[in-house]
Amino acid sequence: MRNVIATFLLLTICMFSMAQVQYDVEPEIEAIQSDYIKVWDKVGEMKGYRVQIMAVTGTNSRNTAENERALFQARFPEIPAYISYTEPYFKIRVGNFMTRLEAYKVLVDIRDMYPGAYITIDKINYKN
Questions:
Q1: Are residues 85 and 110 both part of a single domain?
Q2: 90-126: buried (b, 16+ CB within 10 Å) or exposed (e) per residue?
Q3: Does residue 55 share a domain with residue 20?
Q4: Where are the alpha helices (DSSP H) in the chain?
Q5: d(C-alpha 63, C-alpha 36), whole Å
Q6: Structural domain that includes position 18
Q7: Whole-number Å distance between alpha carbons of 38 and 50
Q8: Residue 38: which pLDDT band, with cuts at 50, 70 and 90?
Q9: pLDDT per position as a tens digit, 2-17
Q10: Residue 83 confidence (pLDDT) above 90
């Protein structure tokens, strides 16, 4: 008798776990959601924060910046690093942070290797 009850319970659990949930969504809501996704897909950049780890100028400054960027990426592969040029400096900035607090957490982690690093406002990549 126990086996029959156990089998019945097991079959009941299996049947409920295979049930599909279906949502009825208004067509207007789907249209708004679709428009929202399309608009934000077009937005490539937005105001945010990055941590500047280095600014170099002079002879071979571009090579120095590229080498330091590669070293940073090897140490922190999960954090994107970017090189920008604003005469006369090549700057290395890292991260795509929506808030200053997110940038600060990374700044604390890298402060030992880059004691002159600081948080700066920049245009960040939204999709990353």
A1: yes
A2: bbbbbbbbeeeebbeebbeebeeebeebebeebebee
A3: no
A4: 2-17, 27-42, 61-75, 100-110
A5: 42
A6: 2-41
A7: 26
A8: confident
A9: 777 767 767 666 666 5
A10: yes
What is the band of 116 on the pLDDT scale with cuts at 50, 70, 90? very high
The pTM of the full predicted model, rounded to 2 decimals, is: 0.66
For residues 32 and 85, the answer to whether their CB atoms sit within 8 Å is: no
CATH number for the domain harbouring residue 59 = 3.30.70.1070
122 sits in which H/E element: strand 118-125
Tokens of 106: 């990374």
- 37 and 77 both lie in a single domain: no
- Buried b vs exposed e over 4-35: b needs ≥16 C-beta within 10 Å? eeeeeeeeeeeeeeeeeeeeeeeeeeeeeeee
84 and 110 together in one domain: yes
